[in-house]
């Protein structure tokens, strides 16, 4: 399979997942500003999930730009990442239904961490394919991103632990914080350097 075909497949699945996110939003009954306000945590959970998946998509494309070759293993790693990603609408709906529920937040956090780990595994494996070892994106991934990716994973794991113990809604806020403080700024910095 070519890199382009796998990227197109990944794009299609992520687009479907992101669309399902909005379809899972509850509708107020009756429709009023007061009832819309009652659904604010649903909109909050949707917004975080949508932009987190969007950031992952942007970073995937940026990292894959210079990739020359993929392996069968890469295809299966991508499928694993998409499998975990397909749980995102369900996990988001659970959190939106009961925002301060430890089980819902922990499930959401487990999905976020599983997606992140499978994505890191795939990116790491791509760096071991001989044709890719000179690619700038692979070198950047290996050297510059390793520090902020370690911090990203540490904070997500901490958020999961807090959701299981003392701060029930910690995971959703951790994903928001990590996105705003680490992922988006590094994504923008990488974009500026690429130009």
Automatic annotation (TrEMBL):
Q: Name one GO molecular function term.
A: potassium channel activity
* Keyword list, A-Z: Ion channel, Ion transport, Membrane, Potassium, Potassium channel, Potassium transport, Transmembrane, Transmembrane helix, Transport
Q: What is this protein called?
A: DUF1211 domain-containing protein
Instruction: Spell out the reaction equation it catalyses.
Output: K(+)(in) = K(+)(out)
- What family is this protein classified in? Belongs to the TMEM175 family.
**Record flagged with keyword Ribosomal protein:** no
Cellular component (GO) terms are: membrane
Which cellular compartments is it found in? Membrane
Q: What is the lineage of its organism?
A: Bacteria, Bacillati, Bacillota, Bacilli, Lactobacillales
Instruction: Indicate yes or no for the key word Transmembrane helix.
Output: yes
User: Which species is the source of this protein?
Assistant: Streptococcus mutans serotype c (strain ATCC 700610 / UA159)
In the bilayer, the protein is annotated as: Multi-pass membrane protein
Membrane-traversing stretches: 7-23, 43-62, 74-91, 154-184
């Amino acid at each position: 399979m070519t890199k382009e075909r796998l990227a197109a497949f990944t794009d299609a699945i992520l687009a479907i997942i992101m669309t399902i996110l909005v379809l899972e939003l509850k509708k107020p009954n009756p429709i009023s500003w007061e009832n819309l306000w009652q659904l604010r945590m649903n909109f909050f959970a949707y917004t975080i999930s949508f932009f987190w998946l969007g950031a992952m998509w942007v970073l995937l494309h940026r990292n894959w730009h210079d990739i020359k070759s993929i392996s069968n293993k890469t295809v299966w790693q991508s499928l694993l990442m998409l499998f975990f990603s397909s749980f995102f609408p369900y996990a988001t709906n659970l959190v939106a239904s009961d925002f301060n529920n430890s089980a819902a937040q922990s499930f959401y956090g487990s999905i976020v961490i599983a997606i992140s780990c499978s994505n890191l595994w795939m990116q790491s494996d791509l760096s071991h394919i001989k044709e890719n070892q000179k690619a700038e994106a692979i070198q950047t991934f290996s050297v510059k991103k390793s520090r902020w990716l370690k911090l990203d994973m540490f904070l997500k794991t901490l958020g999961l632990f807090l959701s299981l113990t003392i701060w029930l809604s910690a995971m959703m806020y951790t994903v928001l914080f990590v996105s705003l403080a680490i992922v988006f700024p590094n994504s923008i910095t990488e974009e500026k350097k690429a130009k």
